[in-house]
Structures are given as structure tokens and as C-alpha cells.
Specification:
- By secondary structure, the chain is mostly helical.
- The chain has one domain (about 30-175): Up-down Bundle (Four Helix Bundle (Hemerythrin (Met), subunit A)), CATH 1.20.120.
- The protein contains six helices and two strands, in the order αβααβααα.
- The protein has helices at about 5-20, 35-55, 70-95, 120-140, 140-170, 170-180; strands spanning about 30, 105.
- A two-stranded antiparallel sheet has the order 1-2.
- Helix 1 packs parallel to helix 3 and helix 3 (about 70-95) runs antiparallel to helix 4 (about 120-140).
- It is globular, with a radius of gyration of 17 Å.
- The termini are far apart.
């Protein structure tokens, strides 16, 4: 295994382990989205990772768009590692309010500190950074299609989450939404 592969695999392994451990300490759910919308979100992630993983085996997904180089290695790591740190920081800040699905928890808090001062959905920001870093490291068309699918899946999910947050927190969330960007600090 190359150094870049090792670092990227470690980032994803740490992410998965942290999410698994964190899933045991959540508040009870008070309100959630429909079963169908949860299935759609799961399908987006399965499809996104399938494009990423299968990109080496299937043509035209296997078309190399960005050949591996030292610069690509550095950029890939510079996306994956901060992406992982952002995900963990955001997950830790949310604490019991976190859920893998769009829900409102019992005694749900409107978290606006930590990374939530900079973007409303920092877990998605971090995850997308990790996914993009991985796609760059692979360099194949399939990885970038997977990134686009992942982005669309998160966009659908965050719109559902925001509808729930507006319903629960009303003007407080609308004010937060006006002050803080969605995924990229100060830009988007």
C-alpha cells in the first residue's frame, strides 16, 4: 500500500469507528422524515461509493482524468485529513443531537458553536472534503461522478434537515441561516 492509500484508508477507518462509537450516545428521536426519504439518502451514498470503488474496473468509469503525482498526493491528503478533523469536531459538538438521518431529537438544541459558527452542515463539508480527496487520489472519472452523486445526496438531505430545523426552531433557525453559509464558510 502506498503512503497516500494508507492515509486515506486510515481517515475513512477512523471516521467509521468514530461514527459507530458515537451512535450509542444519542438523544431519543422526537420527529423524523419519511421512510422513503431515508431509503433515498442511503441509495445516494451506496451509489456514490460504488462509483468511487468501481472506478478502476469499469470503462468509462476507469478513465484516468488526473494522473497521480506528488502534488495530487499532497492535495488529496490536504483534503482528507482536515475533512476528517472537521467531521469529528462537528460530530463531537453536536453530541446527543446528532443523527445519521434528518430528525429532531427530544430536547434538541440549536447548535451554533464550534464548526457550526462557520457552516450549518460541517459534517457534510468534512465528508465531502474526504470524498473529494479520495476521488483525486484515485484520479478516475468514476470517483468524480461518485463525488457529484454524494454532493446531490447531501444536498437533498440537508434541505430535509433544514425544513425540520425551521419547523422546530422557527425564527432562531432562520436568523442562523441568514448569518451562516451552508457548506463553505463565507461563500456557499
Amino acid at each position: 500500500m502506498t503512503v497516500i492509500t494508507t492515509i486515506i484508508v486510515l481517515c475513512w477507518a477512523i471516521f467509521a469507528l468514530y461514527w459507530l462509537i458515537g451512535s450509542f450516545s444519542q438523544k431519543p428521536v422526537a420527529e423524523k422524515t419519511s421512510f422513503a426519504s431515508r431509503i433515498v439518502q442511503l441509495l445516494f451514498m451506496i451509489i456514490a461509493f460504488n462509483f468511487l470503488i468501481q472506478s478502476a474496473q469499469l470503462y468509462p468509469l476507469s478513465i484516468m482524468l488526473i494522473p497521480n503525482s506528488l502534488v495530487i498526493t499532497i492535495v488529496s491528503i490536504a483534503l482528507c485529513v482536515p475533512g476528517l478533523i472537521t467531521c469529528i469536531w462537528a460530530r463531537r459538538t453536536l453530541a446527543g443531537n446528532w443523527s445519521s438521518l434528518p430528525v429532531i431529537k427530544k430536547d434538541h438544541d440549536l447548535v451554533q458553536d464550534g464548526p457550526y459558527k462557520f457552516v450549518r452542515h460541517p459534517i457534510y463539508t468534512g465528508f465531502l472534503l474526504m470524498f473529494l480527496g479520495t476521488a483525486l487520489a484515485i484520479g478516475r472519472l468514476g470517483g468524480f461522478i461518485g463525488f457529484a452523486v454524494c454532493f446531490v445526496g447531501f444536498w437533498i438531505k440537508l434541505r430535509q434537515e433544514e425544513a425540520l430545523m425551521i419547523k422546530r426552531f422557527k425564527e432562531n433557525y432562520l436568523s442562523y441561516k441568514k448569518r451562516v453559509k451552508t457548506l463553505i464558510p463565507y461563500l456557499f
